[in-house]
Structures
1.
Amino acid sequence: MIELLAQGRRLDGRSLLDYRPIDIKCNVIQKANGSAQVTLGNTQVIAGVKIEVGVPFPDTPDKGLLVVNAEILPLASPYAEPGPPDEDAIELSRVVDRGVRESEMVDLSKLVLIPGQKVWAIFVDVSVLNVDGNLIDATSYAVVAALLTTKMPEVEVTPTGEIKEKSNMIPLPVSKIPVSVTFARIGEAMVVDPDSEEEAVMDARITLTTVDEGHLCAGQKGLAGGLTYEQIMFAAETAKIKGQEIREIIKRAVSSVGQRER
Amino acid sequence: MGKLINDGIRVDGRRVDELRPYRLEVGVLKNADGSAYIELGKNKIIVAVYGPKELHPKHLALPDRCVLRCRYHMSPFSTDVRKPPAPSRREIEISKVIREALEPAILVEEYPRTAIDIFLEVLQSDGGSRCAGITAASLALADAGISMYDLVVACAAGKVDGTMVLDLSDIEDKEGEADMPVAVMPNLNIITLLQLDGILTHEEFKQGIDLALSGCKKLYEAQRKALIERYFKSGLNQQEEAE
């Protein structure tokens, strides 16, 4: 593999900076407020958004809650076991959560019902259905696409503090589209979107998330290996370019839902 | 009373002996040894089978047969109100009855000292998810090449507004008087799952089982078609002509 990478090629025929085919389908779960299924090569994940009335954290009484949780289901791979999420699943949830949160994609200040007492709680749950590498990006795109197509009930807060749901649904207050790009360093080569075979031999991993203007909003380095200064700068540049390409794919998937509804 | 059935037509427009729309697909997950997907009404369930494989810890293995393990799990977004991801008591019981509904069909003694894992994930739930899950799980076992005496197919009947009906939807399950899931090996005529909650007369009980079995028969045809579609690529028509 390392010889091949030195020639700029990969086992499945991709070049170093090619993603596998990305397919995004929105609104696949009618019972969820928003949902998306993402296929990235053979990696398959599904995200669903549920919105409930919750209690804000004491230190942020004027902000809604956003919870991103990913589970690698035991049906997703021969190595996944039933039980509470392991270290990898928790890192996955948290890296994706950070990308969405730090991008300020969801305007949490607009999700307050009664300051300090009642706010909207946005639960984004991701079920990983088939594992073939780069769960972080697949999960991240599913979460973002699901949030972009989320509808919530319009409500009225009465002076006595009651919350009345109106019948019409409004979109979640979302603006930006954060896009994560994950790299694997294998020997000296930096590749994007590693599959399972590449993940098995990679020395280091880095995920960088960008927002629409190209600014970085979140990052995470993983595994025991290190990265040089040049490699990190290369990743930052590439994340911006690749991120823009993928943002267009997400936009297309989201807008095709809007057209169907019209 | 009388709100769920009017002139023999149910709230979703079905007759009393009609199934919800369904779709079955075999071989949907790359990593699994066998997999299947079912939609029945609003139910969307994906099932994977891993095995036969080595069992850890080893002392759990049986010398003369395989161990069958089954996990029925609902995704947090599958229900009206979010379901916390940890397995509930309901899910643990359902996992057990599903395992016991499938086990009679499997030639367990062909796979000594091994384990077969069956994972059912409910992506969206509606009434009757355990039955839909069993129907799909049996296909996933077949897809994994596990030796079986017969497929297992399941369907519920129940009592709604004083009438016996087939294949209860979510609202009929919640507001109706009785719900009775039934699983059967259709060629051997052996019932492998029977649960009942609600009051039925003996006559209604018999009617319910007959109704459930009629639903199973239709779903069994769909199971066969799904397997033929998966394994005879050139298509269903040729296979039917050959028959």
2.
Amino acid sequence: MRVFSNVTGLVVPLDRANVDTDQIIPKQYLKSIHRTGFGDNLFDGWRYLDEGAPGMTPNERTINHEFVLNLPRYQGARVLLARDNFGCGSSREHAVWALMEFGFDVVIAPSFADIFYGNCFKNGLVPVTLPKATVDRLFELATGPQNLVVTVDLPTQTVSADSGLVTHFDFDPQRKEKILKGLDDIGLTLAVRERIEAFEAQHYAKMPWLPGARTSIREVR
Amino acid sequence: MAQSKMTQSKTLDPNLRKTLYDKVWDSHLVGTRADGESLLYIDLQLLHEVTSPQAFGGLKVAGRPLWRVMSNLATPDHNVPTDRRELGFAGITDPVAYEQVITLDQNCKSFGVEQFEILDRRQGIVHVVGPEQGATMPGMTIVCGDSHTSTHGAFAALAQGIGTSEVEHVMATQCLLQKKARNFAINTTGKLADGVFSKDLILAIIAKLGTAGATGHTLEYRGAAVQALSMEARMTLCNMAIEAGARAGMVAVDDRTLEYVHGRPFAPKGQQWDEAETYWRMLVSDNNAKFDQWIDIDAGQIEPYVTWGTSPELGIPVTAAVPDPAKESDPQKAESIRLALKYMGLAANQPITDIRLDRVFIGSCTNARIEDLRAVAKVVKGRKKANTIKQVLVVPGSGLVKEQAEREGLAKIFVDAGFEWRAAGCSMCLAMNPDKLGPGEHCASTSNRNFESRQGFGGRTHLVSPATAAAAAIAGHFVDVRTWL
Ligand code: SF4
């Protein structure tokens, strides 16, 4: 997992509630068996006017010049500002991979959907939850005459802007530690292997009918 | 010592009554890691071709084996073509999809995972196959890299969709890192009217809660109307828990649950069944169990539902008209209504029954089981699809559902009506395979998501019950199926 501590970057405002993962990365790109190659197709249905297919480059596509990510002033943005329930719908982790590959380090929203939120932490994308009023204010700033550049600092859990706005956000301490150090979850869990094995012994003794208690694949045709 | 005493007295405390979710959670809690994260033991991981390759890849790179091979069960579903199935892999014309399905096959072979491969008659949508095989049993923890894993909660299992990194974590450790969710009771009274189905009930619940209304919660569907539902209808309810923001939805064990599981290939037999039954019977919320949230729904008031917008929460009764943004006081909500109407090509205040359809899709893990197909056949029998409808796809949830529908004569009713009878898979639920909508086309769909372009680029999805979809296929537009009974 990627290590993250802080970022200072341009904010792009995506003014829609309930942005679902089908919009973040449409299904035709999920056919890939890799973790990379999704950045060009982030928000594909909104960034382009034509229907895309895996393997097409942005040069072959019809760009939607009205979509906020395509506006010249927001090029190079590293912070995505979003509305309520960002990342709802499908569990596809490809949504997080696509956001990161496109160049986002942080997503700020008043609320996130559960599975998406969890998927962020597995990869080092930082989801920052701020009160609705603060998000409204950031939207005003980000769509105002000046570009909005913020610094998101994970160690101090703050978002600060040039205008002097500084706001604190809550963050789970364990997840913070993992992102700051880029720790491998599987390795951490395997460190308590004996606990799992001990659990299994009593679990399968109590419930010998569970699929995991089988010793071989049965032919049940 | 002092500590274990404390736990003892805790469980004896009559004030600490548990919900069904609490019980399944507690019986799978392995402990806490050094960093404080809870480890939840996972009894079964279902695998399909879309969200598993990167996880298998991660294991290979790190040289890690599967923690417990037998706790995994795989089948390809998202990408498989639904016609000319006899061609097997060769029937997959898209090379990228082909590679993905082949990769699942290779991974299952090299890691020793049980798979119902593309030509196996038990192949189908993972969430149809698990219960059908009896691999889904009460009290289990089940995960799958697919958000509709909640379906299995109908069996009092804690079943959740997870991301690919979590898939890899479960493969390698048989555990999921998780924080416990809160308890949310959806309490139903009354009884669904004729022509109204659990799909209508869940669409009404989602319309009430909103797509984020149950975020951070596990739903328990309970009360008289739920108890009266068949297992298949309960699966439909649990399937769409995620559409209200909940990761899992559950229904307590009763006689119906046990009857359904009994005799299925994976189910325990003989004395082991008796032991299992004794344990499973306890999988109900205690009388004094505390729910963090509770809503009451009178099922008798529910009408057939149709979604008009681009989010599952945008559903209304078939007798109603599409909302008018001008009447919405919250400007952000008014704007989202406007966006949805524009995408859907609908006018404010347009009656639902005026919406003309181009295609109809009957399928998906929400509604592709035998009872769903029977409900369709009941409406369709002796009738023909409207000439204005370009295509009606009927895609059974599994190869075994397909066989049964053929044995019961349902398939013939569909074909006689001018519908296309296909092989099992996800098909036009998400249109990763060749079954899709064209731009601007309206589709009455028994699936679970009406997001923009979900069923094909520019396609317009209306979520409905199988009976409503069937009636729409005949009429060419939405009708109140209750008037057809
Ligand atoms: S049928 Fe649809 S919702 Fe169900 S698993 Fe397949 S793609 Fe997902």
